[in-house]
């Protein structure tokens, strides 16, 4: 977003507000920030961080019907407001249409009818949107969230620990065929049949309730680590990596949410506004690439699209964006050395026409 005047910024994956606080520091013109996250731990950390950065923090509750309610008043004129929304980015359009973004953005009423005149059919028109997909380091490093195969904890993996199917329920109740399908499609794991078979065999001995029980059930399919490296090498990939990724994606419906949210995010941009998306594995990146090509009016990809990406099979009749990154931007060697988790990151950016 360098060189872009950002008055309204939407962080679809707020986390502990690392990106959001950096945006406040680097864009003094920024008046309204909206952050989405289902994780209550993230809300507590982000609230403190953004308040310390000088923003008035306004918690936003979202009902099942999509109606929003504010738990505090926005900043006075000239102040900076950070709306922290207890929802994932899949409800971005609905929520933004109801928030008083100001500064040329939405002037929505409580009925959800956003203000127009900003060049977007959604009636919102924000300057910048960021989606940093996948799970955060905070979630991985918290053992009792169940995301990590390196730390023992309850087998949960839900972004919102209070709702939906848990990983424990999935591995203990789904059929071998369904578990195998998840591992194959969402983990791109070539040993999916054997892993699914071992998981079912292990749960017949006793329920799989912890992350380390699942790691032991997965074993070392194919022998050793993935990526050709040894443990401790940069190329080493733990044998459970792809299976944990697959189960997490299935539990949270991540890929479907991404495919559904990208067109809405583009629609919520003002002309000249930018959407930046950071992905961490090929499944996410392909969805973003397909969605961006579709919105740019480009010919469809030759790749086979999964069912949740079928709307991207053909180009839009009229381009809505231009793609600013012909190829994804990759982390530098210095960044990878400082943060090994960034090694698989890819950044793609589009600009609204």
UniProtKB/TrEMBL annotation:
Entry-linked NCBIfam families: 16S rRNA (cytosine(1402)-N(4))-methyltransferase RsmH
Gene3D superfamilies for this protein: Putative methyltransferase TM0872, insert domain, Vaccinia Virus protein VP39
One GO term (biological process): rRNA base methylation
Signal peptide, first to last residue: none
Residue numbers spanned by region Disordered: 100-121, 216-237
GO molecular function: rRNA (cytosine-N4-)-methyltransferase activity
Domain of life: Eukaryota
Protein's UniProt name: Uncharacterized protein
Source species: Chlorella ohadii
SUPFAM superfamilies the record matches: Putative methyltransferase TM0872, insert domain (SSF81799), S-adenosyl-L-methionine-dependent methyltransferases (SSF53335)
Family affiliation: Belongs to the methyltransferase superfamily. RsmH family.
Bias type Gly residues, positions: 101-121
InterPro entries: RsmH, SAM-dep_MeTrfase_MraW_recog, SAM-dependent_MTases_sf
Keywords: Methyltransferase, S-adenosyl-L-methionine, Transferase
